[in-house]
Amino acid sequence: MEIATIYYKAKDGRLFTDPLKCEEYEKTIGILHGSVGELIANLEKLDPDTYIFGTVYIKHKDGTKTTYCRCTICVDDKLDSFVNVKDLTEEQRFIISTVKELIHALKEEDKDNMQQHTIVFSKDINLKKVGIMSSYNPDVWDN
């Protein structure tokens, strides 16, 4: 009996024994480390309706910078003087940002722009059980 290993070849020639790992790797080909494209690829691994709270700093090719701030936060203390917050749904009591909205905004940027981010994410609107995505990119802060 002879056992043969099946290899899967990525577009750039790298070999894998697992077809899923090969497919995931191919999605990253041509993406610069620390770029907006890399952040989008990482965010796309999350459920699009996941709640987020965080900041993304982007440095453009001309040296200018953009900051994206997204938050999911309860605003009961701001609403209670206008309405009875107990009569509102949970979604009406929050400012909400999701992964889907951040991806949409980031796709307006050049995917090769450098970025740095800190993002807290959760399936829970109250952000009680969270995950954290964070990066430091000195290319954003030079000059």
Describe the model.
By secondary structure, the protein is α+β, with helices and mostly antiparallel strands. The protein has two domains: 1-30, no CATH class; 33-141, no CATH class. The protein contains five helices and eight strands, in the order E-E-H-H-E-E-E-H-E-H-E-E-H. The protein has helices at 19-28, 36-43, 76-79, 99-106, 138-141, and strands at residues 8-9, 15-16, 51-59, 65-70, 73-74, 94-95, 114-122, 131-134. It has a four-stranded antiparallel β-sheet with strand order 4-3-7-8. The protein has a two-stranded antiparallel sheet with strand order 1-2. It is flat, with a radius of gyration of 20 Å.
Protein topology:
Layout (H helix, E strand, L loop, with lengths): L7 E2 L5 E2 L2 H10 L7 H8 L7 E9 L5 E6 L2 E2 L1 H4 L14 E2 L3 H8 L7 E9 L8 E4 L3 H4 L2
Antiparallel strand pairs: 1-2, 3-4, 3-7, 5-6, 7-8
Number of helices: 5
End-to-end Cα distance:
64 Å
Number of domains: 2
Query: Uncertain runs with pLDDT below 50, 5 residues or more?
Result: none
Strand content: 25-35%
Question: Outline of this structure?
Answer:
The protein is α+β, with helices and mostly antiparallel strands and 143 residues long. It has helices at 19-28, 36-43, 76-79, 99-106, 138-141; strands spanning 8-9, 15-16, 51-59, 65-70, 73-74, 94-95, 114-122, 131-134.
Relevant terms:
143 residues, alpha+beta, 2 domains, two-stranded antiparallel ribbon, 5 helices
